[in-house]
Design a protein that fits this description.
This protein has 59 residues and is mostly beta strands. Helices cover 0% and strands 20% of the residues. GO terms for molecular function: carbohydrate binding; protein tyrosine phosphatase activity.
Length: 59
């Protein structure tokens, strides 16, 4: 989707404006359009941008 380049990442949106608590985060959604028929495996990781620095999921 973004070729592992954080600058090309799919923008995500929070489903709620305020978090209920840090233990119960909200759902994040993003839209992706795939060409049909799509038969390849889809691999992805989440990236969070903190003060301009990209933090990869699982690090």
């Amino acid at each position: 989707m973004g070729g592992w380049d954080p600058r090309a990442a799919v923008q995500m949106r929070a489903s709620q404006e305020r978090l209920l608590s840090t233990q119960e985060p909200c759902l994040w959604t993003g839209d992706v359009q795939l060409a049909e028929p799509f038969k390849d495996a889809l691999w992805f990781k989440f990236v969070k941008r903190v003060c301009g620095i990209c933090v990869w999921e699982g690090i």
